[in-house]
Predict the structure.
Amino acid sequence: MIFDVKIKKISEKAIIPTYGSPSSAGADLYACLESPCEIKPGETAFIRTGLCAELPEGYVGLVFARSGLACKKDLAPANKVGVIDSDYRGEIMVAIHNHGSEIRTVGNGERIAQLLIMPYVTANFIHSDELSDTERGSGGFGSTGK
């Protein structure tokens, strides 16, 4: 499914998200920086994209790591997966954490994360004193691999 998403540039340097191939699920988000940003080991930097978006109601933007950046440079979103709600109109920022042991630099125009736009459902949470039984029951972490 393809639909239009309005993107507003709040910086002339901003780059509209792009897909790496026709079958890519995630669109690349690009750094929009005045100067390169050094990220020390164990530290997090908020990287601007210079973009705001208007996501359709009923959809969410999920910001994931780019595998190359995470595996080769040890840089990935600090919150693991960022969430952009459809009613958010502020700048898309990516909190990049340096998981490695060397200082890493992010430059202007560098691909820093990928954005997936997905539908979601909203739950109506209802208090209940009882839940239905299942074979798994209350088995937690690792309980299904036995």
In short: The first helix runs from residue 67 to 73. Helices lie at 67-73. The chain has a mean pLDDT of 95. The first strand starts at residue 6 and ends at 9.
